[in-house]
Amino acid sequence: MKKITFIVVAAALLGLSCAHTANAQEWEWANFSRYAKSNAEVIAAQKAGARKPLAVFMGDSITDAWAYDDPSFFADNNFIGRGISGQTSSEMLVRFRKDVLALHPKYVLILAGTNDLAQNNGPIAIEDTYGNIVSMCEIAKLHKVKPVICSIIPASSFGWRKQLGDRSNDIITLNNMLKAYAAKNHFKYIDYHSALKDEVNGLQAALGKDDVHPNLFGYQIMEKIVLETLKIKK
Fold first, then answer.
1. Sequence-separated (6 or more) residues with CB below 8 Å from residue 155
2. Which residues make beta-bridge pairs with 189?
3. What Rg, from alpha-carbon coordinates, does the chain have?
4. CB–CB of 193/175 below 8 Å?
5. Which of 9, 45, 55, 113 could form a disulfide with 152 if both were Cys (CB 3.0 to 4.6 A apart)?
6. Following DSSP, what letter does each residue of 57-80 receive, concatenated?
7. DSSP secondary structure letters along 163-195
8. 160, 157, 140, 162: which is closest to 149 by C-alpha?
9. Tens-digit pLDDT profile for residues 107-165
10. For residue 71, how many other CB atoms are within 10 A of its CB?
């Protein structure tokens, strides 16, 4: 009886293992496919004589929604959005070559860290998030792309991770680390946080769709800062 039970349990575990493996094969962790077609079009256009993008915006859902909410900002300024909802800095680092370097922009604006602090892929130390962003900057510089480090958007809580509580101080800590790194290495730094925060270091209600994502008014404030930082006159 015990032998039969063991065989049944072993078979069940094997089935679960196979199912997990199949699902893992279907799930593309860094989501390279998201922008594969668009990247190919940009590269083909450059080969045909089109100008290179002035900047690629690398990020998560904040960047992803930005390109949808105000596409004219990107089109009019020769910017390209490469945000993917839910992504952490680790996933961005993995797809950096295909979604940034291959497009040969002058600048890359890196906005990462919100989903790290929200533990979308599990706990990660602030120092490791910082390290991922530093790695993206180092890779960009090596390939003659100028990195622009962006502060994390203010947030007092994450709606999908309420159990984590208030992590606004962690956002400030990471932003200070990034600002210091940018200054030391003579990289441009964009401070969205100061422009969007409320009295408790959350996102101003009038500027957000929720506690984390800016609305169009919020994005327009960010756009003004970007244009000033890159010295683009309008």
1. 114, 167, 168, 171, 202, 203, 211, 212
2. 149
3. 20
4. yes
5. 113
6. EEESHHHHHHHHH-HHHHHHTTEE
7. GG---HHHHHHHHHHHHHHHHHHT-EEE-HHHH
8. 140
9. 999 999 999 999 999 999 999 999 999 999 999 999 999 999 999 999 998 888 889 88
10. 12
Instruction: Outline where 124-167 has alpha helix (H).
Output: 126-142
Q: Which two tokens stand for residue 206?
A: 């009038």
Q: Which token pair is 10? A: 């072993």
Q: What is the distance between the alpha carbons of residues 75 and 214, in angstroms, rounded to a whole number? A: 20
Amino acid symbol at 223: E
Token representation of residue 114: 């919100």
Which helix (DSSP H) or strand (DSSP E) does residue 227 occupy? Answer: helix 216-229
Full-model pTM: 0.88
Cα 107 from Cα 40, distance rounded (Å): 19
Look-up: residue for tokens 């709606």? 159
Residue length, the chain?
234
